[in-house]
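Q: My collaborator sent me two sequences in one message, no labels, and asked for predicted structures for both. Can we handle them in order? The first one she listed is below.
A: Yes, handling them in the order given. First sequence, followed by its structure tokens:
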Amino acid sequence: MDSEVSSLSLSNRVVLLGLASLEAVEETPAHAPAVRAACGDCTDALADAVVGSLDEAAVARGLNVLEVEGPVVRVDDGESSAVGKGRPAFALEASASEVLSALEDDAALVDAVEVVRERA
């Protein structure tokens, strides 16, 4: 898990952190808007130093990359968007604890990981 995470871009690691924070409070599978909100909740205090604010498109791209890389799986929850297209939902393949442990080694995210652990 550590090598998978360390090879990801910072923004994708933040998306993974957001999904892990939702998993920690049993709110997965989750759609991109929920993951985006979770990313903001985790990194608000660190936004300027870490990654700024991720828009929904960046989060959706990150979730797709994370699905290909392996730590995230796409889940069909049967929901669709307002225009009738499918809205993929995502969940972690590993436990939230395992993902947070891997992200904890990232100096840029160590404080954000602590925020998630305190909330869980």
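Q: And the one she listed second?
A: Here it is, processed independently of the first:
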Amino acid sequence: MFKRNKADEMDKEIRSKSIITAHYYTQFMLIVWIIIYTVKNRTILMPMYVLLVGLLVRGASSLIFRHDFGDERWKKGLVILLSATAAVVFLFMLSFGKTKVGI
């Protein structure tokens, strides 16, 4: 039906840089959202959790790709990722009962 051309190196590079740029833009906008809500003295839980979970997903995917390529540095990164995940879960548990999730 549909013939899909194989992506050459230029297409792969463009796609990779576009994804990285979109990721940084999303992080920047979430940080701006957190700052604005902090200045207005509102709850900042939703943008903060979206930012933290996004960073955890990025770290997990990096570890998976390192493991797939045989890089041994994934073991050290796993300890850091698990510690960060535990900290996010702890923060979520502390803030869940006290305040409403603000959007």
